[in-house]
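Q: Hi! New to this. If I give you a protein sequence and the SMILES for adenosine-5'-triphosphate, can you show me the bound structure?
A: Yes, paste them in.
Q: Okay, here:
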Amino acid sequence: MFIVGLTGGIATGKSTVSQIFHDRGIPVIDADEMARKVVEPGGPAYAQLRAEFGAEYFDDENGGVLLRKKLGTIVFNDASKRRRLNAITHPAVRWEMLKQFLWILFSGHKFCVFDTPLLFEGGYDRIILTVLVVYCTPEQELERLIRRDECSEEEAKSRINSQMGIEEKKRKATILLDNTGTQEELRLQVHRVIEELESRWTPWVIRAAVLLFIGLISFPIFRRFY
Ligand SMILES: Nc1ncnc2c1ncn2[C@@H]1O[C@H](COP(=O)(O)OP(=O)(O)OP(=O)(O)O)[C@@H](O)[C@H]1O
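A: Thanks. Here is the predicted structure of the protein with adenosine-5'-triphosphate bound:
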């Protein structure tokens, strides 16, 4: 099984693409969903976050849920608080992703999709060889973000500018997904990519045979020298 990375700019269509993969029965590891899960009450990062930032960032009248927007505002403007938040949440997110990956590994799928906005920033492209980048025009990105999140133009621009530019991501991509058209056009592109990725797949029996062969020829060499 191999991992296909999926990234893009804010609101360029990653979740829309993920859903298309999901609808075709392909497992998706969603980094944003993991990040939400680990800070839920009872989640692996919850108690530490509460101890670090204090009860005023949690809604105790509604089950103690994290007030994401309130915390987001302070960490956006304070680098040391942002580092503390990342130091607490990132290891928990990585652990959850590893568990999900191992589960998928033994489920017999040909490949899985790893959906994360910060694929390049997090250095995941060093270990993931196939990276899909979904893009649209800057005007569409701004318009879709404002429409979906009902935020101001200023807020939308500041969020878009806080990430690596889409042109740089496009340069680093293995496969580009053009989301400047309709969602139906995007769906057809993703289906074509799925056919391509499935045709690349080497059945696990062949891989196992290759590994066994390498093991068999390297074992006598290993014994001779050690
Ligand atoms: N081709 C399209 N035409 C019109 N609207 C679209 C198209 N593709 C996606 N959208 C809409 O744009 C918005 C952003 O899409 P989506 O949520 O998939 O982006 P995203 O990259 O996952 O966002 P984020 O970076 O916030 O995770 C959504 O409301 C979605 O329905």
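A: Residues 8, 10-16, 32, 117, 144, 148, 179, 182-183, 186 surround adenosine-5'-triphosphate (CB under 6 Å). Let me know if you'd like me to explain how to read the tokens.
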